[in-house]
Amino acid sequence: MGTIYNKVHDNDHDIDDLEMKVVRYKPEGLDILCKNTKFSKKELQIMYRGFKQECPTGIVNEETFKEIYAQFFPQGDATAYAHYVFNTFDHDKNGSISFEEFVMGLSVLVRGTLPERLQWAFNLYDVNGDGIITKDEMVDIVGAIYEMMGRFTLPAIDEYSAREHAEKVFQRMDLNKDGVISFEEFMETCRMDDNIVRGMSLFDTVI
Question: Is the preceding peptide bond at 155 cis, omega within 30 degrees of 0?
């Protein structure tokens, strides 16, 4: 989704466009979004123009999201990982992402504090949203990352290696060895070991 964030237009004739109604969807006013995100009004205006260009209806469904994501990772298959990222942005779980949901998620990822970003990452790995990360969830997410980027890692990572990597990370995070990772264990491990954060590719594969 980086192109949407980075698109800058010189013309300001539609500077108040965010206040106007689009085809099926009317976003919140700029002032509200400024309060709820860490973006300025100008940044929000720029992002909205890009968002509307990519998604004229004002919302993006999962298939469109996957298509956009695939543009950034043409070397692999981003389908599975884009599905998981989409779920973290789709806060109301209605199968589509509004502009508000998009910028709220993006605000955390590009301007958020480390605890805020780690909260996002925990939600990504907690696929079913039950408040814990299971080994299967860890394997699924790490596997999706390697499907998308793995052929460019050195040495090359195959499916078995991805699972092995996921299981090693899981064992290090499961501090009380009860077979699941709680939010507290996740946060504590990430605070103690920067290599864990890097090894999980938490933020490099989103923006």
Answer: yes
Helices and strands, number each (H, E), in the chain: 11, 4
**Listed residue (99, 107, 89, 92) closest to 30, CA to CA:** 99
- 19 has pLDDT over 50: no
CA gap 170, 177 in Å, rounded: 10
> What does the DSSP 8-state code read for residue 150?
G
148: part of which helix (H) or strand (E)? helix 135-149
Report d(CA 23, CA 31) in Å as an integer: 22
Give me 74's structure tokens: 């043409």
pLDDT computed for residue 130 by the predictor: 97
Sign of CA dihedral 118, 119, 122, 123: negative
Q: Which pTM was predicted?
A: 0.78
| pLDDT above 90 (res 147) | no
Q: What is the pLDDT of residues 52-81, one digit of tens each?
A: 888 888 899 999 999 988 888 888 889 999
Distance of CA 148 to the CA centre of its chain: 14
Query: 81 near 145, Cβ under 8 Å?
Result: yes
CA distance 175 to 10: 52
**How much is the average pLDDT of 100-105?**
91
Q: Helix crossing, 79-89 with 62-72: angle to 10°?
A: 120
